[in-house]
Amino acid sequence: ILITNITNELKDRLKENNKIDISSIELYMEHILEITINYDYLMDLIAKMANAIEKDDVSVAEETHLLIHNELNKLENDTERTRMQKFVNKIFEKIFKFEKYPVFSDANLINEALEKSERESDFQDITKFIYEWGIGNAITPQQLYNLISKHRKGVKDLDNRGEVSDLLKAVRLDYKKLAIKEYAELSWIRYINQFKSSIYELAEKIKENE
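RE: above sequence
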């Protein structure tokens, strides 16, 4: 039904745009076979690129980086593709480094590195959040991470046991001295409202990386 509808719509548009007899329009459809990704090949490429970056072999790194993205474009899962692309870009831009070189094309090793890079990014975002909102005297990055790790995407669940409310009570006397100017100048009520909105934005961002 969908193919028929699309075909008819295309014929109508061709007729209208080209002023031709619709009976003379013939459309053919070609079935594209599903493309599957070769994970072993992908792991080989990621390891090769990481080692080239470590050796400052720019030409090999750039060529391999392109091959990796071509391979990742075969992934049908948008979330997984974006996740892998971010990781590969971090390696290419020297933001992330493996613990040991040379890197071997071991799927477990590379997946562990991917998860480590995501945790590092999460903690950078969390540390920045704590600094900007002036809540460093009330909570540590690890404690905030533990709170956010319980969050389910799209659900207002961070204060189920009063965790966020308790945190806000603890920072009421400090936020004007410790928060950045944008937040320090807010009235207490506006600070509460914006804080709750921002902590959920942070939680959603971190959950997108999982």
